[in-house]
From TrEMBL:
Keywords: Coiled coil. Residues 83-166, 237-264, 360-416 form a coiled coil. NCBIfam families: taxis_HmpF. This is Uncharacterized protein. SUPFAM superfamilies: Myosin rod fragments. InterPro entries: HmpF. It comes from Shackletoniella antarctica.
Length: 583
């Protein structure tokens, strides 16, 4: 079982007591930890040389024995980084889910609207098809009516021919009658047989007169039917005109949507340009962060060189009794210790310094590896495409967070290491003097190196202040980079959503174009079918008008014929009267 523990030990005047591990938290799974209830402690093994208050990771066996222990700094850094990354990913996923919900809601509304439009258009198409079928049926009826009228025209023509024959016969009879009247004028009158023949001829002429009323009834019926069908054709034409106006209005709406689509593409390209500028700004800030890291590394090297110079001067002062040690060490207490106790204390300090130096060296190596990893990811980002940059950007953010936390931890450890080196040097100086290793001092006046030490301390403090200022700038720059990355990530998501919406709008507009083209095609077909029907109706109207004129003329001819027959009948009667009286 893995535990997070705090090192606790009692410190005395001479040395340190036996350390203990106070258990703070227990690992339940890879990403799950729980606090340890109560105040449970385990005795640390002999190789545990941690300072009091240090945090360590402890592996404990089933019988509560410590199997393994190590510094908790790196593990805690990794845990905090994982927690931070999980929190960021969770927040990013929540934002993406919310954007997806909004996009799906918009798409659902758009689909519902388009479905209603398609249903309306389907109903219009079905109505147009029904009207087309009805129009075709009416066209067939008109064709049958046309055939009926043509047949009636044929009958009328045949009857006209019969009438003309009867009229020719009547003219012949009339001429004969005139001849007879001329002959009779010299005689007393017609005999009874001649009168009977004339009466029979007149009767036959009267029977040969065509009944015009028999033609008026079907003519009136045909005219009424034609008027009805032409009224329907007018209604259909008006309906087609209304549909054409509606389609023209729809075309205007589609043109407006096309303008809107063009503007939305312009807005998307502007958003893309803004996002590209932010990416360039991010690259610039990352390059600035790299330069700041290089500056911080150079300052750390300078601080280390100043510390080495400080140590060398202390080594020079170890050869004289005129040594003024730092206030960090109580020289009087060291002078009062037994020599064996002082040697033990110096040995313990050397061991602690060795462990601390190795640990800091390992941290420095790890920091170098982290910097190399950052450089490698930046190089991959410069060569990657847009999709891979998103993934590499997340990976780069994680590596930068890890580098920042490790560097911040390492700064304090460097300072602590320098202070321990200084304290050890001062202890070693006192020990050497007490062991008589220091050289005998010459009677000449000793060189006072304390001002030089003070100058070096002042320079070290200035370097430390500069390091802190650079670290503050790095932290601010890293925060700015982190915010800019979040802004870019949100912008990329919003840009992708905007592009998907514009493409969906464009696809819908293309579909509307296709639907409108189909409706216009059907409208053209209906007009092509309606125009011949209208022309056919106009031809029938002209034929019926001609037939009505012929019937009127025939009526006049019949009236004239009947009047002539009546006059002839009266003449025959008057001519035949003397003969009838004589007999």
């Amino acid at each position: 079982m893995l535990y997070l523990a705090e090192v606790q030990k009692k410190t005395g005047f001479i040395g340190s007591g036996k350390p203990e591990f106070k258990l703070l938290a227990c690992q339940r799974s890879e990403h799950s930890w729980s606090a340890v209830a109560g105040d449970e402690s385990l005795t640390a093994p002999d190789d545990a040389s941690y300072n009091a208050g240090a945090l360590v990771m402890v592996e404990v066996s089933g019988n509560r024995q410590v199997q393994r222990h190590y510094e908790a700094g790196r593990t805690l850094t990794s845990i905090l980084q994982n927690f931070s990354n999980l929190s960021k990913k969770s927040k990013t996923q929540e934002e993406e889910i919310e954007q997806w919900k909004q996009s799906l809601t918009f798409q659902s509304q758009e689909l519902n609207r388009r479905e209603l439009e398609l249903e309306t258009r389907q109903e219009q198409v079905e109505q147009a098809e029904a009207d087309l079928e009805q129009l075709d049926s009416q066209r067939q009826e008109l064709e049958q009516l046309r055939q009926t009228l043509e047949q009636q025209q044929e009958d009328l023509k045949r009857k006209n021919q019969d009438l003309e024959g009867a009229w020719a016969h009547l003219n012949g009879e009339t001429r004969l009658l005139e001849e007879q009247r001329t002959e009779v004028s010299t005689t007393a009158g017609l005999d009874s047989e001649q009168v009977a023949n004339l009466q029979g001829a007149l009767n036959r002429l009267t029977e040969a007169v065509m009944p015009v009323e028999a033609l008026r009834a079907p003519l009136t019926h045909a005219t009424d039917g034609l008027n009805y069908h032409q009224g329907l054709l007018g209604d259909y034409r008006q309906s087609l005109e209304n549909q054409r106006q509606g389609l023209e209005q729809r075309q205007q709406e589609i043109d407006q949507q096309a303008s809107e689509l063009q503007q939305r593409w312009i807005d998307w390209r502007q958003s893309e340009a803004v996002l590209t500028a932010k990416r360039e700004d991010l690259k610039l800030k990352q390059q600035t962060a790299k330069l700041q890291q290089d500056q911080l590394q150079a300052l750390s090297t300078t601080l280390q060189s100043q510390g080495n110079l400080h140590q060398k001067i202390y080594d020079l002062l170890n050869t004289t009794d005129k040594v003024r040690l730092s206030k960090k060490v109580d020289v009087a207490s060291l002078e009062a210790l037994e020599l064996d106790q002082l040697q033990t204390l110096v040995s313990n300090l050397e061991k602690d310094l060795g462990k601390m130096s190795r640990f800091v060296s390992d941290q420095e190596d790890e920091l170098t590896l982290e910097q190399q990893a950052l450089d490698e990811i930046n190089a991959r980002i410069e060569q990657a495409n847009e999709f891979d940059r998103l993934q590499l950007g997340t990976e780069l953010a994680e590596e930068e967070d890890r580098y920042q936390m490790l560097n911040e931890t390492l700064v304090g450890q460097r300072r602590n290491l320098i202070e321990r080196e200084e304290v050890l040097a001062q202890h070693q100086a006192v020990l050497r003097r007490r062991q008589g290793i220091a050289a005998e001092e010459t009677p000449v006046s000793a060189v006072d190196l304390e001002p030089l030490l003070n100058t070096i301390d002042s320079q070290r403090q200035q370097t430390t202040d500069t390091i802190q200022a650079v670290e503050t700038e790095i932290k601010q720059n890293q925060e700015s980079i982190s915010q800019l990355k979040q802004t870019i990530a949100a912008g990329e998501t919003a840009l992708a959503t905007q592009r998907a919406e514009v493409e969906a709008f464009e696809s819908g507009l293309h579909q509307q174009h296709r639907d409108l083209a189909g409706l216009l095609g059907k409208l053209a077909v209906c007009e092509e079918l309606l125009n011949p029907a209208q022309e056919s109706g106009n031809g029938l109207r002209q034929s019926l008008d001609d037939l009505a004129s012929a019937v009127t003329k025939l009526q006049e001819v019949n009236d004239y014929q009947l009047q002539a027959i009546a006059e002839l009948r009266q003449t025959v009667v008057s001519v035949g009267a003397p003969q009838l009286a004589a007999s």
